[in-house]
Amino acid sequence: MNGWILAATVELGGGGAAALWGVTTGPTARRVVAQNLTTAALCPALLLLAQGYGRPAYVDLALLLALLGPVGTLVFARLLHEDLEGRRPSAWGLTYAVAGVGAAVVIALCAVTGPGRAMVKLLVIGALLIGGNLIASRALSGGFRGVLGG
Amino acid sequence: MSRRLRLWLLAVGGAGLAAVLAAACLELPGFGGRSHPYGTRAVRASLARHTANTIASVNFDQRAYDTLGEMSILFAAVLGCVVLLRQARDEHRERPRPAQVARPVRRYALLVVPAALVCGLYIVAHGQLSPGGGFQGGVVAATALHLLYLGADYRALERVRPLGAFEATDALSVCAYLVLGLAGVLAGTAFLANTLLPYGTFNTLSSGGFVPLLNAAVGMEVASAVVVLLANFLDQAVEIVEEEAG
Amino acid sequence: MSDALILVALLLVAATATAAVAQRDPARQALVLSVLGVFLAVLFTVLQAPDVGLSQLAVGAALTPLLIMLSVRKIRRRRRDRDGAR
């Protein structure tokens, strides 16, 4: 047990409970936003776990989540866009807050790792995670308005 | 059989199952304990074959025959879907309408497609070294392709997806797995025995004998199977419409 | 203390799986299911099974939602066509 795992536990407990609450209650528009923020909240937890267990190979899980999580949100944004029409679901304050947490975790891990290939991988994960989340939020708040039936 | 008898039968069967499960649970080793008889042997065997990721060694070397079974299950499942979802006689295709997607989303999709393809290849190629392997990498690569549908429209995806080629690759990679297995028989050892290729240097890309080759075959099979599966779902959801009866 | 982590992950998975069953609308079920996939991947990582976690992430993050949502779309479109024909 160390500080990294403690941080991951806090992140998992707080972010996970909030995501679960958001995705199971309220209108569809809010649930989609919660689904999107789940990726952003749990990817840093996976990175912290990799560091806490001292297993650099576990970073691949975070890489995959950062890559595919926003794709999953795009699926919902595209195929539910008729339900979301006129709602423009967004929670930009929360989105930026979660992205900030992700950036802080990536920077902290980079500082521990030191320059090298591992650091490049961490930076790629950070860029994919934050970029993907902002784009997915953008897609939810009206990115697919021009899609008809297709 | 009367209702009462059936309930009795269910009760007896359920009680038997509960007793067996309880007995099995009592014999389980303690959670997180130090003694793992099977784990110790599996790790020893995987180190002897210079495979850093013991899971890959179990999947593609010690129990490669099981993986062949799993591979054929996926193949058969996709084949079943293709048969069920084919265009029936009372259905016809409509050209999907082109879609206008917000520019940042489209750019993101175009940027991430190559990144995700490379990531999928990386996961397949490092299967014998770190967590991952053919299945995971294949799914990632196949999902990446469908960002073209999400970020643009279905016609953009259809243009880069020759379905016939993917169907052929699916079948060919299952054959490749079988041929790799039969090579062992021809060389005088056993089916799927990892004895033909040199084991290489521990913890390098070319280590582990034929584990990387089997990983590549599974990766190709899974990637093309997922593409074919999603193609049939997309055809049904986007293109194929039922004709009005009269 | 790492038991606490396992406990948190297990509780999240159990609660999310129950919630997924309790939903009525398939689209909302798919949303809960994709969140459940991520929690499961974390649970597998915590239990030191990253290979399984990777499989879960690869399938659960984008592929399963896509398959479910395409089926939902097909059914909705069919219903709309029938209603329009009447």
Describe the protein in words.
- Chain B: InterPro entries: CPA3_antiporter_subunitB, MnhB.
- Chain B: This is Sodium:proton antiporter.
- The complex is a heterotrimer of chains A (150), B (246) and C (86).
- With 150 residues, chain A is mostly helical.
- Chain A has one domain (3-140).
- Chain A has helices spanning 3-24, 28-53, 59-79, 81-84, 92-113, 117-140.
- Chain A is elongated and about 45 Å long.
- The model of chain A has no long low-confidence stretch (mean pLDDT 89).
- With 246 residues, chain B is mainly α.
- Chain B has helices at residues 3-27, 37-48, 54-62, 64-84, 103-125, 134-145, 147-151, 154-159, 163-186, 211-239, and strands spanning 91-93, 240-242.
- With 86 residues, chain C is mostly helical.
- Chain C has one domain (2-85).
- In chain C, 91% of the residues lie in helices and 0% in strands.
- Chain C contains 3 helices and no strands.
- Chain C has helices at 2-22, 26-46, 50-85.
- In chain C, helix 1 packs antiparallel against helix 2 and helix 2 (26-46) packs antiparallel against helix 3 (50-85).
- Chain C is elongated, with a radius of gyration of 17 Å.
- At the A-C interface, helix 1, helix 2 and helix 3 of A face helix 1, helix 2 and helix 3 of C.
